[in-house]
């Protein structure tokens, strides 16, 4: 398979107030993409899903996710309304 891009998603903001650590997944996606010489992109959490335990991120939460990915060299950032 010759993909054009590596893209991953991880949703860190939980209803109970906890925030998951994105770094292990972020590092893995970046490492794989760099090994293959292709760009790496990410979906950021921009929705809530109470059924799965995710809260609505604040504007600051979304900026933190975007800036973190940009600092790691991600060249594509995507958002979507989940439900």
Can you describe what's shown?
The longest helix is centred in the middle third of the chain and has 14 residues, at 23-36. α2 (59-71) links the parallel β2 and β3. This protein has helices at residues 23-36, 59-71, and strands at 6-9, 40-43, 76-78. It is built from two helices and three strands; from the N terminus they run βαβαβ. It has a domain at 1-9 and 20-46. The protein is α/β, with parallel strands linked by helices and 83 residues long. A three-stranded parallel beta sheet has the order 1-2-3. The model has no long low-confidence stretch (mean pLDDT 91).
Low-confidence stretches: none
> What is the terminal-to-terminal distance?
31 Å
- State the helical fraction: 25-40%
What's the average pLDDT? Answer: 91
> What is the gyration radius calculated from CA atoms?
13 Å
Strand order of the largest sheet: 1-2-3
Class per helix and strand makeup:
alpha/beta
Strand runs, count: 3
The oligomeric status of these chains comes to single chain
**Major sheet, described briefly?**
3 strands, parallel
Order of helices and strands: EHEHE
Strand content: 5-15%
Number of helices: 2
What gross morphology would you assign? elongated
What's this entry about, in short?
This protein is of the alpha/beta class and 83 residues long. The protein has two helices and three strands.
Notable traits:
elongated, 83 residues, three-stranded parallel β-sheet, alpha/beta
Secondary-structure map with pairings?
Blueprint: E1 6-9, H1 23-36, E2 40-43, H2 59-71, E3 76-78
